Protein backbone atom coordinates (compact mmCIF):
# COMPACT_ATOMS: atom_id res chain seq x y z
CA UNK A 1 0.00 0.00 0.00
CA UNK A 2 1.37 3.38 -1.01
CA UNK A 3 1.56 5.93 1.79
CA UNK A 4 0.20 9.47 1.35
CA UNK A 5 2.86 12.09 0.63
CA UNK A 6 4.50 13.73 3.63
CA UNK A 7 2.71 17.11 3.19
CA UNK A 8 -0.66 15.30 3.14
CA UNK A 9 0.10 13.51 6.40
CA UNK A 10 1.29 16.75 7.98
CA UNK A 11 -1.85 18.63 6.89
CA UNK A 12 -4.15 15.96 8.32
CA UNK A 13 -2.10 15.87 11.53
CA UNK A 14 -2.20 19.67 11.76
CA UNK A 15 -5.99 19.79 11.64
CA UNK A 16 -6.39 16.78 13.90
CA UNK A 17 -4.03 17.91 16.66
CA UNK A 18 -5.20 21.52 16.63
CA UNK A 19 -8.84 20.44 16.96
CA UNK A 20 -8.21 17.75 19.56
CA UNK A 21 -6.09 20.15 21.61
CA UNK A 22 -8.69 22.90 21.33
CA UNK A 23 -11.47 20.64 22.59
CA UNK A 24 -9.45 18.84 25.26
CA UNK A 25 -7.50 21.78 26.65
CA UNK A 26 -10.08 24.56 27.06
CA UNK A 27 -9.68 26.17 23.66
CA UNK A 28 -5.89 25.93 23.30
CA UNK A 29 -4.57 26.18 19.74
CA UNK A 30 -1.51 23.94 19.62
CA UNK A 31 -0.51 24.82 16.04
CA UNK A 32 -2.22 28.15 15.28
CA UNK A 33 -0.65 29.60 18.44
CA UNK A 34 -1.38 33.28 17.76
CA UNK A 35 -5.06 32.39 17.96
CA UNK A 36 -4.48 31.90 21.67
CA UNK A 37 -4.42 35.67 22.12
CA UNK A 38 -8.14 35.62 21.36
CA UNK A 39 -8.92 32.57 23.47
CA UNK A 40 -6.85 33.97 26.35
CA UNK A 41 -8.98 37.11 26.29
CA UNK A 42 -12.12 34.99 26.26
CA UNK A 43 -10.78 32.86 29.11
CA UNK A 44 -10.10 35.90 31.25
CA UNK A 45 -13.43 37.53 30.41
CA UNK A 46 -15.44 34.43 31.28
CA UNK A 47 -13.27 33.20 34.16
CA UNK A 48 -12.48 29.89 32.47
CA UNK A 49 -9.60 27.48 33.11
CA UNK A 50 -6.54 27.07 30.92
CA UNK A 51 -5.20 30.62 31.04
CA UNK A 52 -1.60 29.59 31.75
CA UNK A 53 -1.37 27.26 28.76
CA UNK A 54 -2.68 29.97 26.44
CA UNK A 55 -0.29 32.53 27.92
CA UNK A 56 2.74 30.27 27.56
CA UNK A 57 1.88 28.75 24.16
CA UNK A 58 3.46 31.45 21.99
CA UNK A 59 6.73 31.75 24.00
CA UNK A 60 7.09 27.97 24.02
CA UNK A 61 6.35 27.80 20.29
CA UNK A 62 9.00 30.44 19.56
CA UNK A 63 11.64 28.75 21.71
CA UNK A 64 11.09 25.37 20.08
CA UNK A 65 11.11 26.75 16.53
CA UNK A 66 14.33 28.65 17.32
CA UNK A 67 16.01 25.64 18.95
CA UNK A 68 14.90 23.19 16.27
CA UNK A 69 16.22 25.52 13.57
CA UNK A 70 19.64 25.51 15.22
CA UNK A 71 19.57 21.72 15.33
CA UNK A 72 18.54 21.56 11.66
CA UNK A 73 21.39 23.85 10.66
CA UNK A 74 23.85 21.66 12.56
CA UNK A 75 22.53 18.55 10.80
CA UNK A 76 22.70 20.29 7.40
CA UNK A 77 26.31 21.27 8.07
CA UNK A 78 27.05 17.54 8.02
CA UNK A 79 25.42 17.19 4.59
CA UNK A 80 22.37 15.41 5.97
CA UNK A 81 18.68 16.22 5.64
CA UNK A 82 17.13 17.27 8.95
CA UNK A 83 13.61 16.21 7.97
CA UNK A 84 13.65 12.64 9.30
CA UNK A 85 15.57 13.42 12.54
CA UNK A 86 13.16 16.22 13.41
CA UNK A 87 10.16 14.04 12.57
CA UNK A 88 11.54 11.52 15.06
CA UNK A 89 11.68 14.21 17.75
CA UNK A 90 8.08 15.16 16.97
CA UNK A 91 7.09 11.49 17.19
CA UNK A 92 8.66 11.22 20.63
CA UNK A 93 6.78 14.29 21.87
CA UNK A 94 3.47 12.96 20.55
CA UNK A 95 4.20 9.59 22.14
CA UNK A 96 4.74 11.31 25.50
CA UNK A 97 1.36 13.03 25.14
CA UNK A 98 -0.35 9.74 24.25
CA UNK A 99 1.15 8.06 27.30
CA UNK A 100 0.06 10.93 29.55
CA UNK A 101 -3.43 10.72 28.10
CA UNK A 102 -3.51 7.01 28.90
CA UNK A 103 -2.48 7.55 32.53
CA UNK A 104 -4.15 10.90 33.29
CA UNK A 105 -6.85 11.43 30.67
CA UNK A 106 -9.39 12.44 29.70
CA UNK A 107 -8.14 15.97 30.22
CA UNK A 108 -10.46 18.57 31.63
CA UNK A 109 -8.62 21.65 30.36
CA UNK A 110 -8.00 22.95 33.88
CA UNK A 111 -4.92 24.67 35.28
CA UNK A 112 -3.32 21.51 36.71
CA UNK A 113 0.35 20.78 36.18
CA UNK A 114 -0.43 17.66 34.12
CA UNK A 115 -2.65 19.59 31.73
CA UNK A 116 -0.02 22.31 31.35
CA UNK A 117 2.69 19.76 30.54
CA UNK A 118 0.44 18.09 27.96
CA UNK A 119 -0.38 21.44 26.40
CA UNK A 120 3.24 22.58 26.13
CA UNK A 121 4.34 19.20 24.76
CA UNK A 122 1.71 19.37 22.03
CA UNK A 123 2.70 22.96 21.24
CA UNK A 124 6.34 21.84 21.01
CA UNK A 125 5.47 19.01 18.61
CA UNK A 126 3.52 21.33 16.35
CA UNK A 127 6.26 23.97 16.54
CA UNK A 128 8.67 21.41 15.12
CA UNK A 129 6.20 20.60 12.34
CA UNK A 130 5.68 24.28 11.52
CA UNK A 131 9.38 25.12 11.50
CA UNK A 132 10.34 22.05 9.50
CA UNK A 133 7.63 22.69 6.93
CA UNK A 134 8.51 26.35 6.51
CA UNK A 135 12.26 25.77 6.15
CA UNK A 136 12.47 22.44 4.37
CA UNK A 137 9.12 21.71 2.71
CA UNK A 138 8.45 25.20 1.41
CA UNK A 139 7.26 23.96 -1.98
CA UNK A 140 4.24 22.37 -0.32
CA UNK A 141 1.29 24.39 1.04
CA UNK A 142 1.35 25.07 4.80
CA UNK A 143 0.16 22.16 6.93
CA UNK A 144 -1.41 24.12 9.78
CA UNK A 145 -2.67 27.66 9.21
CA UNK A 146 -4.97 27.60 6.16
CA UNK A 147 -5.98 31.26 5.87
CA UNK A 148 -3.14 32.18 3.51
CA UNK A 149 -3.65 29.03 1.47
CA UNK A 150 -7.36 29.70 1.04
CA UNK A 151 -6.61 33.31 0.06
CA UNK A 152 -4.17 32.16 -2.63
CA UNK A 153 -6.73 29.70 -4.02
CA UNK A 154 -9.29 32.48 -4.42
CA UNK A 155 -6.73 34.81 -6.00
CA UNK A 156 -5.73 32.15 -8.52
CA UNK A 157 -9.33 31.34 -9.37
CA UNK A 158 -10.10 35.01 -9.89
CA UNK A 159 -7.04 35.45 -12.13
CA UNK A 160 -8.00 32.42 -14.21
CA UNK A 161 -11.53 33.71 -14.64
CA UNK A 162 -10.73 37.36 -15.35
CA UNK A 163 -7.57 37.28 -17.40
CA UNK A 164 -6.32 33.78 -18.24
CA UNK A 165 -2.94 33.62 -19.93
CA UNK A 166 -2.07 30.45 -21.75
CA UNK A 167 1.39 30.18 -20.22
CA UNK A 168 0.06 30.68 -16.67
CA UNK A 169 -3.11 28.56 -16.74
CA UNK A 170 -1.38 25.23 -16.18
CA UNK A 171 0.74 26.61 -13.33
CA UNK A 172 -2.23 28.24 -11.61
CA UNK A 173 -4.41 25.15 -11.96
CA UNK A 174 -1.69 22.93 -10.51
CA UNK A 175 -1.21 25.31 -7.58
CA UNK A 176 -4.95 25.48 -6.90
CA UNK A 177 -5.20 21.68 -6.95
CA UNK A 178 -2.28 21.29 -4.55
CA UNK A 179 -3.55 23.94 -2.14
CA UNK A 180 -7.16 22.75 -2.28
CA UNK A 181 -5.93 19.27 -1.37
CA UNK A 182 -4.07 20.68 1.63
CA UNK A 183 -7.14 22.60 2.84
CA UNK A 184 -9.44 19.59 2.37
CA UNK A 185 -6.99 17.29 4.16
CA UNK A 186 -6.63 19.74 7.04
CA UNK A 187 -10.43 20.08 7.32
CA UNK A 188 -10.81 16.30 7.29
CA UNK A 189 -8.26 16.09 10.09
CA UNK A 190 -10.31 18.64 12.06
CA UNK A 191 -13.42 16.53 11.66
CA UNK A 192 -11.71 13.33 12.73
CA UNK A 193 -10.13 15.15 15.68
CA UNK A 194 -13.56 16.32 16.82
CA UNK A 195 -14.96 12.79 16.46
CA UNK A 196 -12.03 11.40 18.42
CA UNK A 197 -12.69 13.81 21.27
CA UNK A 198 -16.38 12.94 21.31
CA UNK A 199 -16.10 9.15 21.18
CA UNK A 200 -12.60 8.29 22.48
CA UNK A 201 -11.08 11.28 24.34
CA UNK A 202 -8.15 9.22 25.63
CA UNK A 203 -7.43 6.91 22.69
CA UNK A 204 -7.71 9.88 20.31
CA UNK A 205 -4.25 11.03 21.38
CA UNK A 206 -2.77 7.85 19.91
CA UNK A 207 -3.59 8.66 16.29
CA UNK A 208 -1.00 11.49 15.99
CA UNK A 209 1.63 8.95 17.07
CA UNK A 210 0.57 6.64 14.24
CA UNK A 211 0.58 9.52 11.76
CA UNK A 212 4.03 10.65 12.94
CA UNK A 213 5.34 7.10 12.49
CA UNK A 214 3.94 6.89 8.96
CA UNK A 215 5.49 10.29 8.19
CA UNK A 216 8.95 8.79 8.72
CA UNK A 217 8.39 6.60 5.66
CA UNK A 218 6.39 9.01 3.51
CA UNK A 219 7.83 10.64 0.42
CA UNK A 220 8.87 14.29 0.45
CA UNK A 221 10.02 14.25 -3.17
CA UNK A 222 9.19 17.45 -5.02
CA UNK A 223 8.48 19.56 -1.94
CA UNK A 224 11.86 19.80 -0.26
CA UNK A 225 13.43 23.22 -0.58
* Gyration radius, in Å: 18 Å
Q: Which structural category do the helix and sheet elements fall into?
A: mainly alpha
Overall mean confidence score, pLDDT:
88
- Proportion of strand residues: under 5%
* Main pleated sheet: none
Helical segment count: 8
Distance between the termini: 27 Å
Can you write the helix and strand succession as a string? HHHHHHHH
Indicate how many domains the architecture comprises.
1
Helix content: over 70%
The global form is globular
The total strand number stands at 0
Descriptive terms for the model:
mainly alpha
Description:
By secondary structure, this protein is mainly alpha-helical. The chain has one domain. It contains eight helices and no strands.
SSE topology:
Elements lengths: L5 H19 L11 H11 L4 H26 L6 H22 L8 H24 L10 H16 L3 H34 L7 H9 L10
Amino acid sequence: MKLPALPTLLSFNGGYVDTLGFLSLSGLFTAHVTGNFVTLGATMAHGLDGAWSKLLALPMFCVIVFASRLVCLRIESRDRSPIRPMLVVKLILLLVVAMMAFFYGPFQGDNSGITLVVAMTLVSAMAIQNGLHKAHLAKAPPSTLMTGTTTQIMLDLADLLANPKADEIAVAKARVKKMATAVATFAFGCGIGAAGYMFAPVAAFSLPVILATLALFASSTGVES
